[in-house]
Amino acid sequence: MMHPEISSVKALLDDRVEKYNRPSFIPNDPVSIPHRFSRKQDIEISGFFAAILAWGQRKTIINNCIRLMDLMDNAPHDFILHHQEQDLQRFLGFKHRTFNDTDLLYLLHFFRWYYSRHESLESAFAGAQQELQTQQERLVYFHNLVFSLEDAPQRTRKHIATPARKSACKRLNMYLRWMVRQDDRGVDFGIWQNIPMSDLICPCDVHVERVARRLGLITRKGMDWDTAEELTAHLRAFDPADPVKYDYALFGLGIEEKF
Asked: Which end of the chain is more exposed for a tag (fewer CB within 10 A), N or C?
């Protein structure tokens, strides 16, 4: 039996998931960037950059991501595998907040190394044998893999969060929601099969955090990995199989309804 207060929170969130988890959510959100593509690898790569650049004004994020995809000839996988050295000059001067061309060129280099050896980016998170058991392990593994190449710039590390530094990993958790969550609503892609939806951790931006605190779903001070885990544990009580669907509700309540 759920406590009455808890069940009314669940009812509110279930209602808002219905309201916001629908195609009308896509155009004004960075998820619109991977929705421009149909090929799995293009969705993975464009989605990754859209998630990593997802800070600041949504309009600016989307415009900069569109520009970045244009620079990759709107065929990111093909560009990454087949570009020539001189093709990289077009990225000089690219900037979004503190993410700059040094970071971008390194990530393009990493992706070329990675995709020339692997079919999908999923194994960069799940591990080659899907041996990683928790989201914490997966995100630490991914971060270490990205920076395993010898010329990895120190400055780029801050753009790829890791629970090893206690980060809540908002942007990577959002990216994993896009790639892993499966439903028939049309927003998330659900193209990765080896990470369970039940393992996903709720992406915690300022809107989500504010609403979650007001609803009593977060009690810890500060916003770090443990806080994101605490929130997700509460959401799992509402839906153990698909806790991060409530990201839509918390985000919608925060940004659309100023809850």
From this structure: N
How much is the pLDDT for 13?
98
The predicted structure's pLDDT at residue 3 = 60
CA separation for the pair 204, 111 (Å, rounded): 26
Scored b (16 or more CB within 10 A) or e, 66-83 reads bebbebbeebbbebbeee
- At residue 77, the pLDDT reads 98
Q: How far apart are CA 235 and CA 258, in angstroms?
A: 21
Q: Report H helices in the chain.
A: 4-20, 40-52, 58-71, 76-82, 101-115, 122-126, 135-146, 170-180, 206-214, 225-238, 246-255
pLDDT at position 128 is: 76
Low-confidence ranges of the chain (pLDDT < 50): none
Distance CA 15, CA 246 (A): 10
Cβ-contact 161, 172 below 8 angstroms: yes
Beta-ladder partners of 95: 100
What's the confidence (pLDDT) of residue 259?
82
